Amino acid sequence: MLESVLGAINLGTIVLDHARRVVVWNRWMSQYSDLPAERVVGQDFFALFPDLNGKRIDSAVRQALRDNFPSVLSQTLHKAPFELFVNPAARAAGERMQQAVAVTPLEVPGMARHCLIQISDVSVAVHRERLLRDQALELRSQTFSDGLTGIANRRHFDVAMEKEMRRAKRSGTPLSLLMIDIDSFKPYNDHYGHQQGDDTLIKVAHALAAMLQRPADLIARYGGEEFAVILPEMTVEHSQALAEKMRERIAGLGIPHAKSELTGYVTVSIGLATHALEHPSDIAVLLGEADRALYMAKGAGRNRVVRFSAA
């Protein structure tokens, strides 16, 4: 009866005696370890599995036999201590079963203390957890990414802007903001159609994003054909030089624009404003200054960079 019960249990069951010899090795263990009970029973457990010697399972067994102390191995630190494989393909690939392991002392009447090791297959649960984590990351990515261009969206921009402004004020470092607008984009859309308009938005966004090399730099789609670029710890001079390169980069794409009054290809106008010790600001003020500079760039003929000046 006991053998039938142990064989029917859907988890690994190992019992060690006081000398750490295997006295029970159930059918589940034989199936997933590929070791029959007759080969294992009666053997020194840690002689059979020397790679477990000195590991957490070793100390857990010692604590159970000596101190009558039960243990549960952390799945985070000990994902697959036993060489168990869910199928031959996994064994060939060396992909161990994900395991939950519990070690429990056993008081046997008339005998020295024994130790029960229980092993559960948590591969499905781990896979489900990983899938949920990936889905959560994907959802977070969608929440903070623009659906069309793949760059940061307005929400992401607002969060990053607040964080970088706090950091700039705390550390006394500059913070520059670029507002970028595709010139004459409505006539472009009307002439070429919204599908081509979307394609151009994607090309412009990717070209601008590729020019940002520092981890903290951020480009976001601010709305419609307008983009915003956050440049932490960048002076107004360096920001203006980068903005000019961005303007040249978009012009260099050579995207035809039959409705452009000046160039015949797609261009951008850029407004620049900088928060600095000598010109302190807050988010609303900095946005307003960059927006006014952009408006001035448009009014001065487009396809240019204008830096906001309080003077």
TrEMBL record:
GO terms for cellular component: plasma membrane. GO terms for biological process: cell adhesion involved in single-species biofilm formation; negative regulation of bacterial-type flagellum-dependent cell motility. InterPro entries: Diguanylate_Cyclase, GGDEF_dom, Nucleotide_cyclase, PAS, PAS-like_dom_sf, PAS_4, Rev_trsase/Diguanyl_cyclase. Gene3D superfamilies: 3.30.70.270, PAS domain. GO terms for molecular function: diguanylate cyclase activity. Its EC number is 2.7.7.65. Residues 1-68 form the PAS domain. It catalyses: 2 GTP = 3',3'-c-di-GMP + 2 diphosphate. Residues 173-310 form the GGDEF domain. This is diguanylate cyclase.
